[in-house]
Amino acid sequence: MLSLAEEITEQRVLIGFSENVIRNDELNHYLHSLHQMIMDGSKEFEKEEMLLLFISLLIEQYGQPFEKCIPECSEEIENACVFMSEHFAEHITLDNLCKCSGFSKSTLLRAFTKSKGVTPYRYLQTIRIAKAKELLEKGVSSVDAAIQTGFSDQSHFSNFFHMFIGLSPAAYRHIFKEGGRNHG
Radius of gyration over alpha carbons of the chain, in Å? Predict the structure, then answer.
C-alpha cells in the first residue's frame, strides 16, 4: 500500500481514510470492474490501470487530501500517443508509456485522461479497432485482423470490436465484401 500511495501521491506516506466503511457507487463500479478483469484474466495493462484509477479515486475522495495540480503536459502525452500508434500491435504496458512520457503511472493516468478524455488503455484499444476496421475493409479475416492489431485472441478482439462498432468483425467485413460486389 505504501508503494501504491507513493505512486499516486508522489509522497512515501501511508494514507489515512476518513471512513472505515465506504458506500460509493463510482468506487463500487471500479472495484467490481477490477474484480471482473482479474476473474476474466484480462491483460496486465488493463488491470493495473483499473487498480490505479480505483486507488486514486479512493484516496482523492476519502484519504488525506493531496492537492496536486495536473500540469499541462501535452508534449509528454503526445509522446505516449505516438508510441501507442507506432506499437499498437505489440504488448504495451503502463511502464512503456511512463518511459516515453517521463511520468509516474499515476501522473500519466491522470494527465492522459484529462488531456484525451479517455484512459491510455481505451485510447490504445481505439487505435487497434481503427486499424482492424481498415484490415477488415480490405477483406482480411477476423483472425488475421485480431493478430495484426495486437489483440490476444479472436474472442477478445470480437468483444472489443462489437463494443466499439456495434457489429461483429465478420458482419463489418461482410458489408465491404457485399459493397464491392454491388459496385464491381
Answer: 19
Alpha-carbon torsion angle 63, 69, 111, 92, nearest 10: -60
The model's pLDDT over 45-104, given as tens digits with 9 standing for 90+, comes to 988 988 888 888 887 777 754 444 455 568 889 999 999 999 999 999 999 999 999 888
> Whose CA is closest to 58, among 88, 28, 82, 34?
28
Distance CA 31, CA 17 (A): 17
pTM given for the model: 0.65
What is the DSSP-derived secondary structure letter of residue 72? P
Q: How many residues does the chain have?
A: 184
80 contacts: CB under 8 Å, gap ≥ 6: 97, 100, 101, 108, 112, 120
